[in-house]
């Protein structure tokens, strides 16, 4: 196991999750917590970066705050996991029939309303008799904030401050949600790419195909700078679709395989990249 990567949650119990088994919750309380000194630091870092790397550009991103497992039993039995805590164990609770938060790494309570997606297509979960639902709790952030927090030389200080002031070490970090694909070919190979030298992170290294789901894809007619949680209200299903479809679009654009040759993406879980202070990425299996 790469020491710079840890697993926030995995979906091995169901051999992965399909799109209809996942929902999103959108709320401004899932955004990064801001303060004037941090915003000044972010602006200063961004100006320095674009001077050195003028090909960089800012853009809105979804921020993964936390996840919730929800399963439904036919019987009303008590949760078998009561008393257990910690996000490292939380994926085990999905078997028990109750709802458990999987924070990044802790949850934050706020007063803003939560908007949920409701539609679930299909029933059962890949052969299981019960319906399984994974909820992704999302706010908004941007690429500039990501470079100015997760990649800041002050990131350790920001995490300590977040833990002390807000009870969440990641609360002051951008934490944009990425996507990646384990892409299996018909002859049993897995595709790796060599990253460009003109990227902000992991330049020139091997990687799986991937990128980010884009809020602008579900906000037609709105400038990227104007996108807010309020402008996403009522579009939760479109956000979910963008998360699953964006990984296919990344494969098409980076590997040059047409969408017609790709299978439905299956969510394997969420990994945290500690090289960038625990940035989350939803990892998929695609044939």
A few lines on this structure:
The chain is α+β, with helices and mostly antiparallel strands and 287 residues long.
Description:
The protein contains five helices and twelve strands. By secondary structure, it is an alpha+beta fold. The chain has a five-stranded mixed beta sheet with strand order 1-11-12-7-10, with helices on one face. Strands 4-3-6-2-5 form a five-stranded mixed beta sheet. It has a two-stranded antiparallel sheet with strand order 8-9. It is globular, with a radius of gyration of 19 Å.
* Average pLDDT over all residues: 82
**Helix percent band:** 10-25%
Low-confidence stretches: 72-130
Strand content: 15-25%
The shape is: globular
**Strand neighbour order, sheet with most strands:** 1-11-12-7-10
Q: Compute the number of strand runs.
A: 12
**Coarse structural class:** alpha+beta
Distance between the first and last residues' Cα:
23 Å
Query: Count of helical segments?
Result: 5
Q: What's the main sheet like? A: 5 strands, mixed
- Order of helices and strands, N to C? EEHEEEEHHEEEEHHEE
Give Rg in angstroms: 19 Å
């Amino acid at each position: 196991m790469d020491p710079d990567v840890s697993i926030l949650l995995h979906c091995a119990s169901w051999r992965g999750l399909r799109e209809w088994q996942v929902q999103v919750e959108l709320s401004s309380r899932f955004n990064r917590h801001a303060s004037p000194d941090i915003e000044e630091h972010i602006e200063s870092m961004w100006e320095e970066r674009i001077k050195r790397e003028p090909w960089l550009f800012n853009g809105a991103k979804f921020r993964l705050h936390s996840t919730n497992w929800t399963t439904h039993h036919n019987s009303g039995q008590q949760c078998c996991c009561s008393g257990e805590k910690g996000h490292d164990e939380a994926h085990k609770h999905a078997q028990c029939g109750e709802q458990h938060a999987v924070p990044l790494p802790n949850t934050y309570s706020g007063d803003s309303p939560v908007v949920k997606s409701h539609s679930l297509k299909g029933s059962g979960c890949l052969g299981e008799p019960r319906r399984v639902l994974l909820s992704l709790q999302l706010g908004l952030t941007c690429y500039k904030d990501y470079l100015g927090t997760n990649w800041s030389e002050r990131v350790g200080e920001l995490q300590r401050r977040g833990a002390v002031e807000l009870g969440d070490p990641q609360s002051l970090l951008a934490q944009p949600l990425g996507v990646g694909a384990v892409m299996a070919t018909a002859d049993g190979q897995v595709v790796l790419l060599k990253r460009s030298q003109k990227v902000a992170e992991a330049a020139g290294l091997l990687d799986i195909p991937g990128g980010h789901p884009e809020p602008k894809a579900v906000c037609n007619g709105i400038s990227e700078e104007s996108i807010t949680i309020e402008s996403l209200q009522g579009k939760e299903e479109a956000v979910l679709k963008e998360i699953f479809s964006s990984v296919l679009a990344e494969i098409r654009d980076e590997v040059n395989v047409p969408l017609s040759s790709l299978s439905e993406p299956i969510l394997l879980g969420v990994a945290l990249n500690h090289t960038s202070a625990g940035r989350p990425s939803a990892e998929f299996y695609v044939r």
